[in-house]
Specification:
GMP Synthetase, Chain A, domain 3, alpha/beta, 2 domains
Length: about 375
C-alpha cells in the first residue's frame, strides 16, 4: 500500500513540477525597467512614462531603454493604454524604480501607492524617488549618457543601492514607505532626484530627502542635512565628513572617512520635562588634509577630534530644529522611542503629539574616534 501511495505522489508531481506554470516567451512581453508619474492639474490626468528594456540582439552589443508615454484618469489607465502602444503585455518583475513628481508627492501619492501595492504584478521592493525637477518624466527623457548605463531604471537602482557608502539619502522601498505611513506618530522620507548638467550632457543625480507629514510632502532636506538625519536614526554606515580645524592661524579643511557608527536614542523624563537623549559614537579615518599642519600627531589629532565632535553636534541640532519648526514632522522616530520606553507617558501625549514634537528638547552627545590616517603617517610638506 505504501508503495502505491508513493508511486501516486510521483505521478502527481510530474504534472505540477515539470516546468514553470506561468512561463512566457520574451517575444510575447515587454520588460519594464522603471516608471515616472506626473499629474496634469488642468486636465485632471496622470501622465505615465514607462521605460521598456530592449534586450541586446546579435547586432547590438548591449541592451537599451525605450520610453512610452500615456495619460489616464488614474495611473492604472495610463499603464493599460501603454499596452496598446507596445502591442505586448508589460512585465514588471524587473522594474526597479518609480519616480514621482513634486505635485503628486505633495497632494496625492496615496492613489499611486494603492495601485502599485494592490497589483500583484508589481514588486514590493521597488524604489520610490521624488523628482525635484518640474516633472518626473524629464528624469527619464534627458538621460542620454549611455556609457554610464543605457537603461536609466537599472542605473538608478544601482545608485540607490550605494547609499551605505555615501550617506546622502535614505532609500525607500514601497513596502517600507507604506509601513511608515501606518505607524502612528512618525513620518516617512523619500530620496530626491534631479538632473545635473556639465553643459554638454545631462544625467540624473540622487541626493537629499523629501520630508513627509503623513502622506503629504512638506519640504526638503539637502544632502548635508540628510546626513544629519541619518546620524539620528542610526543609518550611517559610511561616507565622508569635511571638518574645518585650526592649529595655528589658518583653518584647514580635513576629510574624514566614516568607518562605523552607533547611535542610541532614549527619552529621559526628569523634573517634569521630556528630553530626547541622542548619543552618537563614530569611528573615522583621516582621508585627506588640505594643508601642511600636523593633524595626525597627538596634539593635532586631539584638536581635530574636538572640532569634529562640535561640528557634527551643531549640524545635527540645526537639522532637528529645522524639521521641528518648519515641517512639524517626526521623521526621527522620537515617538516610537517614547512609545517603547515610556508607554504610559506616550498615551498621555499621543493626542497632542504634533504640538509636543515642535517643542521637544534634545540632548546631542557626539564622540568621534580617529582610528588612522590611511597610508600616510605625516602630512605632506614642500621643502623650502
Amino acid at each position: 500500500m505504501k508503495k502505491k501511495i508513493f508511486l501516486f505522489m510521483i505521478c502527481i508531481n510530474i504534472f505540477f513540477l515539470s516546468g514553470c506554470w506561468n512561463y512566457k516567451d520574451i517575444d510575447e512581453i515587454r520588460l519594464v525597467a522603471g516608471m515616472a508619474i506626473d499629474y496634469d492639474e488642468k486636465k485632471n490626468e496622470y501622465i505615465t512614462t514607462i521605460e521598456i528594456i530592449n534586450p541586446a540582439s546579435k547586432k547590438e552589443s548591449q541592451m537599451s531603454g525605450e520610453l512610452y508615454v500615456s495619460r489616464g484618469k488614474l495611473p492604472f489607465d495610463g499603464v493599460r493604454d501603454i499596452i496598446m502602444k507596445t502591442g505586448r503585455k508589460l512585465y514588471w518583475a524587473h522594474a526597479k524604480v518609480i519616480i514621482v513628481s513634486q505635485n503628486i508627492a505633495k497632494k496625492n501619492i496615496i492613489s499611486l501607492l494603492d495601485y502599485v501595492y494592490r497589483d500583484a504584478e508589481f514588486r514590493e521592493d521597488m524604489r520610490i524617488i521624488v523628482s525635484k525637477e518640474k516633472t518626473a518624466r524629464e528624469i527619464l527623457e534627458l538621460h542620454k549618457e549611455e556609457k554610464i548605463h543605457p537603461v536609466i531604471g537599472i542605473y538608478l537602482d544601482d545608485v540607490i543601492e550605494s547609499e551605505k557608502s555615501i550617506s546622502k539619502y535614505h532609500c525607500a522601498q514601497i513596502w517600507k514607505f507604506i509601513k511608515d505611513l501606518y505607524d502612528e506618530g512618525i513620518s516617512p522620507t523619500l530620496p530626491v532626484i534631479r538632473n545635473i548638467s556639465d553643459g554638454e550632457k545631462v544625467q540624473p543625480y540622487v541626493g537629499g530627502l523629501a520630508v513627509f507629514k503623513g502622506d503629504k510632502m512638506v519640504g526638503w532636506l539637502d544632502e548635508f542635512e540628510a546626513q544629519a538625519f541619518l546620524w539620528v536614526i542610526d543609518h550611517v554606515y559610511g561616507g565622508l565628513v569635511i571638518v574645518e580645524s585650526k592649529m595655528k592661524d589658518k583653518p584647514t579643511k580635513i576629510t574624514l572617512e566614516i568607518l562605523n557608527n552607533k547611535t542610541k536614542v532614549k527619552p529621559i523624563y526628569k523634573e517634569g520635562e521630556l528630553v530626547m537623549k541622542i548619543d552618537i559614537e563614530t569611528d573615522v579615518m583621516i582621508g585627506e588634509i588640505g594643508g601642511t599642519d600636523d593633524f595626525i600627531g597627538k596634539e593635532g589629532r586631539n584638536i581635530l577630534k574636538k572640532d569634529a565632535q562640535k561640528q557634527i553636534k551643531t549640524h545635527i541640532e540645526k537639522v532637528i530644529k529645522k524639521v521641528q519648526k518648519e515641517y512639524d514632522s517626526d521623521i526621527f522616530r522620537f515617538s516610537k522611542s517614547i512609545k517603547k520606553e515610556m508607554p504610559n507617558l506616550w498615551k498621555k501625549i499621543k493626542p497632542n503629539w504634533d504640538e509636543f514634537f515642535r517643542g521637544l528638547k534634545t540632548e546631542v552627545n557626539v564622540v568621534v574616534n580617529i582610528k588612522g590616517s590611511a597610508l600616510q603617517l605625516k602630512p605632506l610638506k614642500v621643502a623650502k
